C-alpha cells in the first residue's frame, strides 16, 4: 500500500518540494489523521512493514495515521516504522521550490517533469535527479519489500512523484507512465497481483471519499 503525505504549504501552492524539509500544515495533519480510517478499510491486518521517506512531512503523516513512530533504517518492531532514503521525493535540482508555470517561463517551453526531467542544481542547490534515477530507487524499494509481501500488507509512506514512479515500476510499465497516475495529498493506493501479474486494486483513495 502507498500513502502520500498530507498537505504542506508548498504542495498547496504547487511548488516542487524535493529535499526541502517542510512540515505539514494544520490541514495536512488533519488529512493524515483521517487517512487512518481509509487504511482501516483496506488493510487486511496489521502491516508487516511500514517504511517512510526521511522527510518530516512523510514521517509525521505515518505517525498521525497510526502507522507507528518512524525510526532509523532497520527492522520493524514495537510499533515503529522504518525510514528509507530511497523513498525520498524526486530531487528537483534547480527547480526546487518553483511551480510548473515558473519553470515553463524560465525554459520557454511546455516543460513536464516526467518527460523533460530537471536542470542540475547550481551552488547551494540540490544536485537534481532524472527519471531513470528515481525509477532505480523505486525498483530497489520494491525488491526490498518483496519478501515481506508474502507475509501480509506493506505500507510505504512517501511523496507524490516518487510514489507515482514506484507504481509505474510495480506495473512493469515505462516509469514515465507515472505522469498519468494522479495522486492527491494523504491519498491511499493499493497495489496487488492477480495470477502473478502486478496491478492496481485501489488508487487515490482520500478521506473525503468516506464522508
UniProtKB/TrEMBL annotation:
Write down the InterPro entries for this protein, in alphabetical order: His_Pase_superF_clade-1, His_PPase_superfam, PGM_Phosphatase
SUPFAM superfamilies named among the record's database cross-references: Phosphoglycerate mutase-like
Q: Which residues form the signal peptide?
A: none
- Which GO biological-process labels does this protein carry? regulation of phosphorelay signal transduction system
| Active-site feature positions | 5 (tele-phosphohistidine intermediate), 89 (proton donor/acceptor)
Task: Note down the stretches annotated as region Disordered.
Answer: 1-24
MF annotations from Gene Ontology: protein histidine phosphatase activity
Residues at which substrate binds: 17-18, 57, 89-92
Q: Pfam families per the record?
A: His_Phos_1
Q: Which domain of life is it from?
A: Bacteria
Q: Spell out the Polar residues composition-biased ranges.
A: 9-22
Give the protein name, as stated in the record. Histidine phosphatase family protein
Q: Which organism is it from?
A: Quadrisphaera setariae
The lineage is: Bacteria, Bacillati, Actinomycetota, Actinomycetes, Kineosporiales
Amino acid at each position: 500500500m502507498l500513502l502520500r503525505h498530507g498537505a504542506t504549504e508548498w504542495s498547496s501552492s504547487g511548488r516542487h518540494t524535493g529535499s526541502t524539509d517542510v512540515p505539514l500544515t494544520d490541514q495536512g495533519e488533519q488529512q493524515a489523521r483521517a487517512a487512518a480510517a481509509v487504511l482501516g478499510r483496506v488493510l487486511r491486518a496489521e502491516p508487516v512493514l511500514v517504511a517512510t521517506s526521511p522527510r518530516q512531512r512523510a514521517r509525521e503523516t505515518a505517525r498521525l495515521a497510526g502507522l507507528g513512530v518512524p525510526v532509523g533504517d532497520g527492522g520493524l518492531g514495537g510499533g515503529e516504522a522504518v525510514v528509507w532514503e530511497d523513498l525520498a521525493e524526486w530531487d528537483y535540482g534547480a527547480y526546487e521550490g518553483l511551480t510548473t508555470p515558473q519553470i515553463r517561463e524560465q525554459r520557454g517551453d511546455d516543460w513536464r517533469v516526467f518527460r523533460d526531467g530537471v536542470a542540475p542544481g547550481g551552488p547551494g542547490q540540490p544536485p537534481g535527479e532524472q527519471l531513470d534515477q528515481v525509477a532505480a530507487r523505486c525498483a530497489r524499494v520494491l525488491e526490498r519489500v518483496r519478501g515481506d509481501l508474502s507475509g501480509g500488507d506493506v505500507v510505504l509512506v512517501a511523496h507524490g512523484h516518487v510514489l507515482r514512479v514506484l507504481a509505474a515500476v510495480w506495473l512493469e510499465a515505462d516509469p514515465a507512465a507515472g505522469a498519468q497516475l494522479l495522486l492527491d495529498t494523504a491519498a491511499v493506493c493499493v497495489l496487488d497481483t492477480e495470477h502473478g501479474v502486478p496491478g492496481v486494486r485501489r488508487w487515490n483513495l482520500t478521506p473525503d471519499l468516506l464522508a
